[in-house]
Amino acid sequence: FVYQANLVPYTRAELVEKVAANLSTSRFEHCLRVEQTAIELARQNGADVERAAIAGLVHDYAKQLPDETFIAAIQANHFDPDLLNYGNAIWHGVVGAYFIERDLGIHDDIILNAIRRHTIGAPEMTLIDQILFVADFIEPGRDFPGIEQARQTAKADLAAGVRYEILNTLSFLIKGQKKIYPKTIDTYNAWVPTQE
Ligand code: GDP
Ligand code: FE
Ligand code: FE
Ligand code: FE
C-alpha cells in the first residue's frame, strides 16, 4: 500500500530498499513478516495500520550493526551507561531507534517508542507498542514450543498475547541462565503476576 500520513520521508519501496541494504536476507524477510503481522493485528485492534506497518518493517533495522557502533552511540548520546553491561539483544531496540531516526528519517515518537520497547516491553505499553511486541513474537516464520498458543492467545486478546510473551521470554532467559535487563523485570512485574 501507499503511506498516507507523513510519518516517513520515503515511499514503502524506498524504505524496503534501505532496510534490505542493512540486513541479511533472512533478517530482512523476518521484517517483512513482522510488517504483515503488525498490519493484521492493527486491523483487528482498531489501531493505526500505517504506524504498525512502518514499525514492523523497520524494527530490526539496527540488528546487524557491529557492537562497536552501538557502544560509541551509547557513549556519545548519553544513553544509560548500564546498557554497556548488555549486548545486541538489548541494544538493537533501545539504541536501534536512534539509528532508525537518523538513517530512515522517522521522527514519530509512537513508532520510535514501539521500536525501543519491542524486545524488553515496558510497564505501560501503547497499542502500537503491544502490536509490534506481539507481531515480532508470532510472525509466521517463528517456531518454538508454545508458538501456537502464543498466536491463539494474541489473536483472541492482544494484551493477553503480551502477557504470554513476557512470561515465556523471561522463563526462557532464566532457564538459559541469561542476564536479565532490569527493565525486562519491570515489564514482567507490571504485566504478569495476578496477585502479590
Ligand atoms: P528479534 O530481534 O526479532 O530476534 O527479537 P527480539 O528483539 O524480541 O529479541 C531479541 C533477543 O533478546 C531474544 O533472543 C530475546 O529472548 C532476548 N531478550 C529479551 N529480553 C532480554 C533480557 O532481559 N536479557 C537478555 N539477555 N536477552 C533478552
Ligand atoms: Fe528485535
Ligand atoms: Fe520481540
Ligand atoms: Fe524482530
Bound molecules: guanosine-5'-diphosphate, fe (iii) ion
Task: Name the CATH superfamily classification.
Answer: Hypothetical protein af1432
Domains counted in the coordinates: how many? Answer: 1
* CATH third-level topology: Hypothetical protein af1432
Radius of gyration: 16 Å
Summarize the structure in short.
This protein has helices spanning 12-22, 25-44, 49-58, 67-76, 88-94, 96-104, 109-116, 127-138, 147-156, 158-175, 182-191.
What can you see in these coordinates?
The protein has eleven helices and no strands. The radius of gyration is 16 Å and the shape is globular. It has a single domain, classed as Hypothetical protein af1432 (Orthogonal Bundle). Helix content is 64%, strand content 0%. Guanosine-5'-diphosphate is lined by residues 60, 63, 89, 93, 118-120, 136, 169, 173, 178-181, 184.
Search tags:
binds guanosine-5'-diphosphate; mainly alpha; binds fe (iii) ion; Hypothetical protein af1432
